[in-house]
Write a structure and sequence with these properties.
Number of helices: 5
Strand order of the largest sheet: 1-9-4-5
Number of strands: 10
Distance between the termini: 57 Å
Oligomer: single chain
Shape: elongated
Largest sheet: 4 strands, antiparallel
Length: 236
């Protein structure tokens, strides 16, 4: 965990514009706080700086095909940047789950009848602003729970002394990142060492957040005839 004051003090010391003997001035701290939050917003757009995609349950209402998502929307929580590639549909009666396809705009647009009723087999999320739009197809005819994994923005610093909980490696990333971001404000040029530290810090964080996806092949692409034992089949 850390605070904006800790990150800002470390960054400005690295630039040589603050020291233990000369604490950060109030106006400098305020300016640096704005710059820090702008940088955090930018980092939120980099998929591999997002460290957690929490499972989120969306209750589906029979006859309803789409939901606005964001503060003031039907799903009144923080608007996701995008959704993870996995999702499940859960029967509210039996609690059994099955996979549902997360599709892109092209595939969703190609669905000829988006009002067809039935069991949902696909979902599409449009990250429109200020409210995102979550759509399911087919239109559910009964209540289901949709389980999705949204990418949410990194936490912002409300003030200089607000404690923000972050995983290992993020405090260094923010400090080295702010060092480079703030340099032009003080007529400084980031050194090669500082740029290297930022690259190393960012690579460490992204390496930790990489998720290796399971390779999948459409069954229709396998050149196997009905009755062929897959255990003994080989290309040739």
């Amino acid at each position: 965990m850390t605070t904006a004051r800790v990150v800002i003090t470390g960054a400005l010391r690295s630039l040589g514009v603050a020291s233990a003997e000369e604490p950060v001035q109030a106006v400098m701290a305020t300016d640096a706080l704005e710059l820090l939050n702008a940088m955090v917003d930018s980092y939120s757009l980099e998929r591999l700086t997002i460290y957690h995609t929490p499972a989120t349950v969306v209750p589906l209402v029979p006859g309803v095909a789409s939901y606005t998502w964001g503060i003031g929307g039907v799903l009144a929580s923080e608007r996701p940047l995008q959704l993870g590639p996995q999702a499940q549909l859960r029967d509210v009666t039996s609690a059994s789950e099955c996979e549902i396809n997360v599709i892109d705009q092209v595939r969703y647009g190609a669905i000829p009848d988006k009002t067809a009723p039935g069991m949902p087999t696909a979902l599409y999320y449009a990250p429109s602003f200020p409210l995102g739009q979550l759509s399911v197809w087919a239109v559910p005819t009964q209540a289901w729970d949709l389980i999705v994994y949204p990418y949410r923005v990194l936490p912002r610093f409300v003030d200089l002394d607000m404690v923000v909980l972050l995983p290992p490696g993020y405090e260094r990333l923010l400090r080295t990142g702010l060092t480079v971001e703030a340099a032009p404000e003080y007529g400084k040029e980031p050194s090669g060492v500082q740029l290297g530290q930022l690259m190393e810090a960012k690579n460490n964080v992204k390496r930790q957040n990489v998720v290796v996806q399971r390779a999948q092949v459409d069954a229709a692409l396998w050149p196997v005839h009905v009755g062929t034992d897959l255990r003994s089949w080989s290309p040739g």
